Amino acid sequence: MLEALDIGRVQRASAHFLPQVLLPLVSVAERGEPLEAAVEAVVKILGFDSFMYGTSLCTRPSSEQKSYVFTTLPPEWVERYDQSSYIEVDPRVLHTFASAMPLVWDQQSERGRDRATDAFLEDAAGHGVASGVTIAVYSAREGHVVVAFNSARPVIDEFRRFEIARSLGDLFLMAIYFHELFMRLVIDKDLPPQSLGTPLSPQEKRCLMFAAHGFTSRAIASELHISERTVELHFSHLRSKLGVANRQEAIAKAIAASIIRRGELPQMTACAQTIQPANRTHRMTQDLR
C-alpha cells in the first residue's frame, strides 16, 4: 500500500492523452494524496474488484534488483501469497515472463497444469482473485513489471469476454500510467519497499541458505525445481525485506540476525518434491523464453 508514504505531488505530464476514467487517479496524484481509494474506484469502473502492481528492478546502478508491490487486496492475502511462495506457480507471473500480450484468465483456463497451480488457484479464488486480466509493462530499467486486474468471478463467459475486450485499451493505459506514476512517486525518490522488515518466506530462506553455500541461481533452481528466473525474483524480494543492495549483503545480514545458518543446507519442501519433471521442464522453458 502507499497510504503510509509521503509521496508529495506529481505533475500531470501527458495525462491529457488518458481516458476520462483515469482522471480521478491523476487528480489524486497531483494533490499528493494516498492513491488506494482512487485506484479502487478506477478499477471498479473498469469492471474489476482489485488491483495489483508489482515490479522488480534496479533502483541504483550499484545495486541488484529489489521488489515493490502496490495492491488493493487485503494484507492477509498479501502475506499468505508471500509466505506460500505462490509466485512460483502463479500463472499470471509466469505468463509475463514469456509474453508481452495480456493474459485473460479464469479458473477454467488455468486449472489442470499441476497440483501446485490448482492449489494456488483454489486459495486465490477464496480470497477474491478468481479471474482477471494481467499485463506486462516495459520498463526502461530492465525490470519485471506485472499489473493485474482481479475479479471474484470464477468464470469469464462470452459476454464478460466482450466487456474485457472493449475496455482492454483503458486497462493498458491504466497499467502504463500507474507504472509511470509509481516510478515517479517511489522509485525516483528512492523510497524503501513496503516489504522492508517483513519476515522472509521459507523458500526465500532456502534460496539464501543455498547461496551461502556458494550455489549459483541456476544450481538453486535445480535444487528447488523452479526456474532460474523465479530464483532471481526470490532474491529480489528478500533483498527488499532485508534492506540490502546485493546477495552478499543479504547473506551476511541474515547470518548475523540468525535468520539462516551457514552450516546447514535447507530441507526440501513437500511441494518441491512432488513437482513432476515434465512440469518443471515446461515451467523453466516458459520462464526462460
Provide structural commentary.
It is a single chain. This protein is an alpha+beta fold. The chain has two domains: 15-187, Transcription factor LuxR-like, autoinducer-binding domain (Beta-Lactamase, 2-Layer Sandwich), CATH 3.30.450.80; 202-287, Winged helix-like DNA-binding domain superfamily/Winged helix DNA-binding domain (Arc Repressor Mutant, subunit A). It contains 13 helices and five strands. It has a five-stranded antiparallel sheet with strand order 2-1-5-4-3, sandwiched between helices. Strand 1 (50-57) and strand 2 form a beta hairpin. Helix 8 (202-212) packs across helix 11 and helix 10 crosses helix 11. The longest helix is centred in the middle third of the chain and has 30 residues, at 158-187.
Question: The biggest beta sheet, please?
Answer: 5 strands, antiparallel
Architecture per CATH nomenclature, i.e. the level-2 architecture of the largest domain: 2-Layer Sandwich
- Please compute the radius of gyration using only Cα atoms: 19 Å
Strand content: 5-15%
Query: What is the total tally of β strands?
Result: 5
Distance between the termini: 32 Å
Summarize model confidence as the mean pLDDT. 86
Q: What is the level 1 CATH name of the largest domain?
A: Alpha Beta
Helix content: 40-55%
Give, in order, the helices and strands: HHEEHHEHHEEHHHHHHH
The chain-level structural class is: alpha+beta
* Strand neighbour order, sheet with most strands: 2-1-5-4-3
Low-confidence stretches: 1-7, 269-289
What is the general shape? globular
- CATH superfamily label of the largest domain: Transcription factor LuxR-like, autoinducer-binding domain
